[in-house]
Amino acid sequence: MTIELTDIVSEEDLSFTKIARFTIFVFDGTEQDKLYKGITDLKSSFSATQLSCIYHLLLESNQGPILKLNDFCKSRLESESVSVNSTRRHIKELVELKVLIRDEVTINGELKSSSSAYRLNTMHNIHLSIMEKKQSKGKQGNDKAQRESASRALNAMGYTKKDLAYRSYLSAGYLIPKDVVPTEYQALAPAKRSGKNFRKIDFMENGFEYRIEAKAHDHIVTQPALLQLYALINLAISYNAKMLSTGKIETPFQNKAFPAHYLDILHLRGQKDSGQARQRVLKQITELRETQYRWVNLQPNSYDHNMPNWMQGYFSTSDFQYIVKLETNSTVAPKISAESKETETSPVLYFITFHDDIIEKIANAEIFFSIPWRIAQSQPLIFSFYMTLRKKQVSMESILLTELREMMAFAGTIHKLRDDLEMELNTFYSETKENAYSYNLCGYYIKFNENQAGEWVVNIYCDIEEMVRESGATYKSPKSAPTLPNPLKTHSKKAMTVEEMTFNTSLEQLMAYINTRLVIPHTKRYKLYKIIKVGDKQIVISGYTTDSELEIMAEFMADELNIQLLLARLCLMEFKKQFQLVGYKGQMVSVEQFQHLFQRLKCDGILTRPEFQQHNNDLIAFLEIIKSFRRQKFECWLQGQYELLISLILQTLEP
């Protein structure tokens, strides 16, 4: 279809068409009346971002016959804090879903070949498109194919589904083995994928000159991939801890490979499941598999004299790789299309084997560095900054930014370092108490300023008790260290009694029974909560279920199912560990913040609005609301700006 613009608006209103290329939306003014109810009925067929984009278009359709794409992007940025690139992506997705139709544009009969117009499709055609998409997905069997492929791969590799359930063995803090990622590797790693498959940098330490080279077939390890490495290490530790505690292995890494499901990886990274997230996981693990590191001595004649002792192992290992063997469900148990003869399955389950040096460092360590989970889930720059403060054991001092840049192996200028750090710290770590510092990085109080010589410095004060507690370790005295014992040492010393093994078997059987028989089917794959039907009552459990609420649930379940109270309690605790906490860029909403907003919305009557009556439960209504939160709402929530947050929620709910 071709749209003649002079049929819609007068030539005086077509000044924007003087530019060589333009994109517009065209409305007839009836879109909201014709589409709002139908789109709302089909809302489960769209993502939250797609739905938000559609509703915004319907709102704009009453404002005039033409809307420029740039103006629409700007409007979403101002009202919903959705970036321009994201809005353009959402428009593309809606075209693929046939919610939007793209037409050619003419002015006085002259075709504008480089310009186009979007218009909203009819409800009938949108509905047909959604049904065709669902049928197509069913034929391809995407989700089902992945599950079947993962199940077959587990069997082929000698694992069971129970072996994958090891998330409960994660430690209170995020474990960081010593010397796994040298600072030099951080300097070599690009901030993001940029097409580099080779890089080398010359270094000097105490007069000793050396070079490190990184090469890969496709792309060398990036900074996000190094954070991915730490997530994989924590999964490897928790998997081996479970195998040791259940008696399936006798020594750590008895089987060098360990299974890692992509959902567990995303959980440790504090990221939500999406197609893009899955691709990132695959790319970053592939980087760790393909990248080879080579250390070159630039002073071979003074090898023994100048080389620091800690380096000698790196020079004796040629072509080091973090991951030496990698299998996935797609390689072990692929599903091949009968028509195209191509693999229909994508990697969702990884079987990873670390380099022997990494395995040795993990298995033999008595203690690990422990860091807060939200630091591990932060941007690479914040992670590197925090780790630098920890390694240097900063207590109270001023560090020149030139020195900090060297410590962190930061590639940019000191001004770039300060600006980037302040941008991240301002978002999540602003200090709310009245003191001399601007930020609180999990116990490290921070402020940037200039010294008397005009040099930029960062002033740091470490509250030892706060820093230790934030790390997940136990604080007993000022000499307490932010470290945790190696779980592999703990579990390898502990032999299970017959009673313990029987109890664990009963717990696994109870969880399997609840998952298959009692969990309400449509909530089985929910990331935030599940509904469990026990007797004539429904139990809603999430990652924010409080201890007192969980105890009440356990007592009720024990009575209804005629089981031990301890068994019911532990079962519900295991369920609770499965759920994601909500947050933004690694900073999670606390239980107190969750309960505060829940009670506010409940008292204000927002949870009893007509659109939530189908849930028949205030908590479910609340969880459904926060599912669609994005940056602006999370920032308000995390900063305690509840009045503004509630007004934003009400704006979203308005038709």
UniProtKB/TrEMBL annotation:
Annotated keywords: Plasmid
InterPro entries attached to this UniProt entry: RctB_central_dom
A Pfam entry, by short name: RctB_central
Domain Replication initiator protein RctB central region: 185-473
Protein's UniProt name: Replication initiator protein RctB central region domain-containing protein
Organism: Vibrio nigripulchritudo
Phylogenetic placement of the source organism: Bacteria, Pseudomonadati, Pseudomonadota, Gammaproteobacteria, Vibrionales
